[in-house]
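Please fill in the sequence for the structure shown.

STRUCTURE ENCODING:
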């Protein structure tokens, strides 16, 4: 009888360990476009064009569009959810932003930046917001901007926007 209980315990514990390994199936994007948001703080982000990342709150969707006005203060991006199992499991996404030619020319760095990369800790089943906001004149580059979300070498979401001068 002890052998049977031990085997059952082993079988269930092995199944539990497997079920707890995160698995990401896809990323859902329920909305995109232009937003308003409050900037709560800035945190260091060495792989980005500005060297920082804005932490925002009170994010409000203003318009569903892929055309973005080239103006200071504009926020554009998308909301997304990580779909997989188990719910609430932590995963690491890589966010890539590809800038239109000739790239962004940060006055603090003489080389133009054609892309930014940022690793983000996310949880399966939760909704997030990815955006770019024009905080400096040198960031405003007309053309096609591309946002990508990657997980373990697989691109799971891509959104493009066209920034236009008015």
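FILLED IN BY: designer on duty
SEQUENCE:
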């Amino acid at each position: 009888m002890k052998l049977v209980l031990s085997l059952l315990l082993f079988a269930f514990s092995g199944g539990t360990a497997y079920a707890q390994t995160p698995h990401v199936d896809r990323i859902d994007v329920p909305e995109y476009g232009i937003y308003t948001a409050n900037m709560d703080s800035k945190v260091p982000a060495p792989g980005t064009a500005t060297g920082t990342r804005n932490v925002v709150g009170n994010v409000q969707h203003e318009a569903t569009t892929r055309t973005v006005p080239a103006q200071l203060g504009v926020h554009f991006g998308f909301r997304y959810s990580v779909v997989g199992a188990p719910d609430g499991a932590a995963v690491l996404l890589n966010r890539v932003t590809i800038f239109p030619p000739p790239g962004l020319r940060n006055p603090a760095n003489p080389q133009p930046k054609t892309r930014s990369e940022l690793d983000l800790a996310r949880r399966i089943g939760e909704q997030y917001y990815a955006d770019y906001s024009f905080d400096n004149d040198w960031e405003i580059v007309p053309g096609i901007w591309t946002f990508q979300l990657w997980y373990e070498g697989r691109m799971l979401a891509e959104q493009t926007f066209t920034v236009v001068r008015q």
